[in-house]
Amino acid sequence: xxxxxxLDTDDLMRRMDGTLAxxxxxxxxxxxxxxxxxxxxxxxxxxxxxxxxxxxxxTVNVPEPRMVTINVWDKALVGKVEKAIRxxxxxxxxxxxxxxxxxxxxxxxxxxxxxxxKVAGHYAEHARVAVRNVRRDGMEQIKKAKGDGMSExxxxxxxxxxxxxxDTYIKKVDDMLExxxxxxxxx
Length: 187
Known about the structure:
Distance between the termini: 65 Å
CATH topology of the largest domain: Topoisomerase I, Chain A, domain 4
Order of helices and strands: HEEEEHEEHH
CATH class of the largest domain: Mainly Alpha
Strand content: 15-25%
CATH architecture of the largest domain: Orthogonal Bundle
Number of strands: 6
Strand order of the largest sheet: 3-4-6-5
Shape: elongated
Radius of gyration: 22 Å
């Protein structure tokens, strides 16, 4: 009556990998006191009637540890890029030099570092929840298969495999968080 059940663990892993990739992007946007072109990724500029990432309107460089420069290709967009950076909440004051926008990265104080570690913790918790949601989807597929005639032994084997996968990814999230918090607190 029942065909052999095969859980698509590749799909579960792909979705959990996507969660980790999203977490990496969120962590990259956190300012650690060192210059990084990734910190500008969430900033969008109103260019030519639509919202565009900064790296699509100019060249982003990190010439020194505390400086990011943006060489805007179109002179007409320099003001818009500057305004987008000011309004982004990054806490950086852009300086104009022709079509080049310089972003000096200020030193972080202790209080701001603690705030950033809390923000990183929130990002990590959202990632854990996303991983657990993928686990829940896998478990629901297994329960449905049990209703279709899967044996209890097979159910236990699949459930333990999904739980093992979940534990592995939760550990990866925790490791990423620990690394990011050390990076933020480093003076």
